[in-house]
UniProtKB/TrEMBL annotation:
Highest taxon of the lineage: Bacteria
Organism: Endobacterium cereale
The protein's name in its UniProt record: Uncharacterized protein
Annotated transmembrane regions: 9-31, 51-69, 89-111, 117-140
UniProtKB keywords: Membrane, Transmembrane, Transmembrane helix
Length: 150
């Protein structure tokens, strides 16, 4: 690609990172509140804890999907220009959250508890890092095409 610099990549990476970091922080706050509420209201069994923790990325998946739908409709929720590239970015992030949920649910009831815990600890950071890098490259390439904006 002609004219693409490290600065362009860092800009694209940062654009994806800070948007997803805000959603993941809100997700963590929701989960903390839900855990406190569940602890007060319900008996905590092994199965209920596994289900609750396996669904830990569900709020983030919903938020990313809503951002993709809202962004494709008007673009007023966020400051970036209307672009199908950003809708694809939000849908990819929602898909990553769904993949994490599926992997954690599968591990919760198929493998020993230690394997399930390791899946929950190691998969999300690795998956998001790889996805952020790939999405930064995708945004750079979509920016190079005429008619798209970042």
């Amino acid at each position: 690609m002609k004219g693409v610099t490290l600065r362009d990549f860092i800009y694209a990476f940062w654009a994806v990172f800070w948007r997803s970091a805000i959603i993941l922080i809100v997700n963590a706050l929701i989960l903390h509140g839900a855990a406190q509420l569940m602890h007060l209201l319900f008996l905590q069994t092994d199965t209920s804890i596994k289900i609750r923790l396996s669904l830990s990325h569900l709020p983030a998946a919903v938020f990313f999907t809503l951002l993709a739908l809202r962004h494709s409709a008007s673009g007023t929720l966020t400051t970036q220009n209307l672009s199908p590239a950003w809708r694809h970015v939000y849908l990819a992030l929602a898909g990553a959250c769904a993949l994490i949920i599926i992997a954690k649910m599968g591990a919760a009831f198929s493998f020993p508890t230690e394997t399930w815990i390791m899946t929950g600890m190691l998969l999300p950071p690795f998956l998001f890092l790889v996805l952020w890098l790939a999405l930064a490259i995708y945004l750079m390439r979509s920016r190079q095409k005429p008619g798209t904006t970042m």
